[in-house]
Amino acid sequence: MSKSNTLGFGLGLRSEYYQQILEQRPEVDWFEIISENYMVGGGKALYFLDAIKEQYPLVMHGVSLSIGGPHEIDADYLRQLKTLADRVQPCWVADHLCWSRGSAHHLHDLLPLPFTQESLLHVASRVRLVQDVLQRPLVLENVSAYVQWKTSCMSESQFLAELSSLTGCEILLDVNNVYVSSRNQGFDPWQFIMELPHGRIRQIHLAGHSDYGHYLIDTHDQPIADPVWTLYSKTLSYLGATATLIERDDHFPPFDELLAELFKARSISANVLGAAAPCA
Amino acid sequence: MRLSAQQEALERYLATGDSVIPSELLVQIQGSNTLPAADGLMIYNNAYRARLLSVMREDFPALHRWLGDESFEQLALAYISAWPPRHFSLRWLGEKLPEFVSGYIAEPQRSPMLELATLEWAFTLAFDAPDAVPLSLDVMGSFSADDWVYLRVCLIPSVRWLQLQHNTLGMWVAAKAEADIPAAVALSAPLDCLVWRHELVCQYRTLEPGEASALRLLADGGSFASLCEDLLGQHGEQAPQRAVTWLKQWVCEGLLQRG
Fold first, then answer.
1. Does A146 touch chain B if contact means CB atoms closer than 8 Å?
2. ipTM of the complex
3. Which of A139, A157, A239, B145 pairs as cysteine with A170 (C-beta 3.0–4.6 A)?
4. CA distances to A2, A246, B83 from A5, in Å
5. Chain A residues near residue B17 by CB distance under 8 angstroms
6. Has residue A199 got a pLDDT over 70?
7. To which CATH superfamily is domain A3-273 assigned?
8. pLDDT tens figures, A105-147
9. Which chain A residues contact residue B27 at CB under 8 A?
10. What pLDDT score was predicted for residue B128?
11. DSSP string covering A220-247
12. What is the least distance, in Å, from the CA of B225 to any CA of chain A?
């Protein structure tokens, strides 16, 4: 993957900001959509999606693929995902390394997998299936975790590296998730990042979390915390220019506050990589 | 323990909402010094219910306001237990709430609650129903005489047609205005109510019986000529004028597309 074609700095597209984006054409290099929000018949979401994709590159980011789930991959979901990808023509399609659907029903959470050989083979076969349908590499994100399975015999980052090697899938490195999980589980976040195959990292996520003292929860309803900015800076110094996206999913601030965070990411990147480096 | 068994154990724990963590699950989980295994599992357990409750409050705000926090949460949790999420999108979580209410709540609350839930779900359905190209006055202006004779129309896909037996609409309007919600009262006659989306915005209005009957005739495939004929009995010579006036209103409201 060439680093020279990084998309630059993007924001999660949320309905709260549709009108403002179209009216003000903010200095955002790209937007990331939550895929499931646009798997609908019609109406406001698809109207604004079509209008905004005329003006900005888009990336698709799903939450319901359940790539590690015990069920068969939902054929209807996959069909709708492909239909949406054909409509959006996204730069890439991402989801999470997790399971979100059980054998009986949907759990609507990003649940951690045991990082075992059994899981690796299970997930790899499903990644191949999804990639065959989408006709493109799938991009998978590390999740925030609040527990680990005792049967795990490798770290999440080692698992992602193996999975990428087996399937050709790419990686969405959520720096906030690394930090949240590292605090909750007591591992070194930098070691996590060093264990990833850097050439396979397609995108970075940044977001806020809630600090409950002895543990953190990935809430996406706060500004990005200082330790996450620090880890982001260190990550960029190692990876080089990498498409970076800021997520906000609750307690939506005025759009300018999100833009200020985006400019901060830009500035950190410029400082780390040299002023001319990052944007496409 | 195999992967599928581990997942089944966690799924069962989350779905049942038990405060006690089953030992066969707990022994599989590695905690840390900062976040013990039981506390970590509780975070997932709490998040599951909090997320679903939040969606139910968002999709049924009037019902929530009418029942109050405690009773609504009790209803929503009972519903989630009976109808756990079966679709990959949370947008469909509340689909079966009206059906659930009809079996779970006793009269006299059942009927108005069922209607209010149905009305709120109608708005959810209308919001993102498939797009349509509504019939416009511009297009009708270019109609030939034959076009009028053979004109067939149908309702656009977002239209939901409800027959209300109670003052449900008044209750919904009050809830939306964050005003005091009137007591549920049965109407002396059923009231036709349409919910639909026009130019991205959800709309609603009631129909008096004559208009409802005329719109039903056209929506069921009747021709404009048959509508005029049907109105003759009640409106005499004014029937064509009456038909044109209604048709123009329905078209301006974006309710119709060519059949």
1. yes
2. 0.94
3. A139
4. 6, 19, 46
5. none
6. yes
7. Divalent-metal-dependent TIM barrel enzymes (3.20.20.150)
8. 999 999 999 999 999 999 999 999 999 999 999 999 999 999 9
9. 150
10. 97
11. S-SPPPHHHHHHHHHHHHHH-S-EEEE-
12. 33
| Strand stretches in chain B, DSSP E | 29-30, 153-155, 160-166, 186-198, 201-207, 256-258
Name residue A55's amino acid: Q
A143 contacts A96 by C-beta, under 8 angstroms: yes
With CA atoms as reference, the chain B residue closest to A39 would be B89
Q: Could you tell me how many residues make up chain A?
A: 280
Task: Please check whether residue A111 touches B, CB under 8 A.
Answer: yes
Q: What is the pLDDT of residues B51-96, one digit of tens each?
A: 999 999 999 999 999 999 999 999 999 999 999 999 999 999 999 9
The nearest alpha carbon in chain A to B90 belongs to A108
pTM, to two decimals: 0.94
Band (pLDDT 50/70/90 cuts) for residue B151 is confident
Averaged pLDDT score across all residues of chain B: 95
Q: Is A132 exposed, middle or buried (0-12, 13-18, 19+ CB in 10 A)?
A: exposed
Tell me whether residues B8 and A103 touch, CB distance under 8 A: yes
Fold of B130-259: Outer Surface Protein A; domain 3 (3.90.930)
Of B3, B12, B56, B92, which to mutate for an interface test with A (greatest number of A Cβ within 10 Å)?
Answer: B3
Alpha-carbon distance B161 to nearest alpha carbon in chain A (angstroms)? 19
Percent composition of chain A: helix, strand, coil (DSSP 3-state, to 5):
45, 20, 40
What is the domain partition of chain A in residue ranges?
A: 3-273
- Residue among A40, A80, A146 with most chain B CBs within 10 A, to mutate: A146
For chain B, helix (H) and strand (E) counts, in that order, are 13, 6
Q: Which residues of B touch A150 (CB under 8 A)?
A: 27-30
Pair B152, B259: CB distance under 8 Å: yes
Residue A5 has pLDDT above 70, yes or no: no
